């Protein structure tokens, strides 16, 4: 979808579907774009409005320079996303680099006083406070990017395969991750789920537990069979999580009508920012491959 002046925008999938029960905003992995989620609408069904975000440098925005600074990327994404928060329950999802962006985006939206997401789902990325191993400076070389491709262990529709050339976009995205430094945000309050592959060489399963400090709400770590892309052809865990993000319709309100806006942090009415208490959240662990 292009903006009113004909410039490709953040939402190539078109306008929102107001009749969906929940809206799923998806952030892509390094080197990828919105097309990584092209088959999710059919897989998740009509109750879920899948809305991939398209950052600069990919897809219809390939002629725009990609961001190499997380703060700028998140600020631009939040500015684009905020007008789409119309009261429909929504979830933020990000895979790999997209998980880090989704987390920072949730924090930024809270700062702006927008409606809070029902859930944050992060997939295949270490917690924000953990530096990726192997990054010794703020610029990723082509050799380092090629090694990351090898560890990705498999082609995908929107990323170069291990045998192909290293695209400049991938190097830019990995450089963004290398330059990222976590700021000590107050914990979020919504449920947070960290998904990961049981055989992921980039994000060992034990590292996912470190995400739990970033919410005072329920935390779940879920392990799936596979490596760095455990959700490929396996979206049942996401479908299950989204079922809990659809609040029951209050009596007297027709299905599909947006619920009253909720200020970030879960309080009704005008937004007020209070530092969340750093309490240990409820936590669940699922074994690899377990469907409940």
TrEMBL record:
Pfam families: Thioesterase. InterPro entries: AB_hydrolase_fold, TEII, TesA-like, Thioesterase. Residues 245-292 are annotated as: Disordered. Belongs to the thioesterase family. One of its GO terms (biological process) is lipid biosynthetic process. Gene3D superfamilies: alpha/beta hydrolase (3.40.50.1820). It comes from Streptomyces lonarensis. Keywords: Hydrolase. Residues 280-292 have a biased composition (Basic and acidic residues). SMART domains: PKS_TE (SM00824). This is Thioesterase. Residues 25-242 form the Thioesterase TesA-like domain.
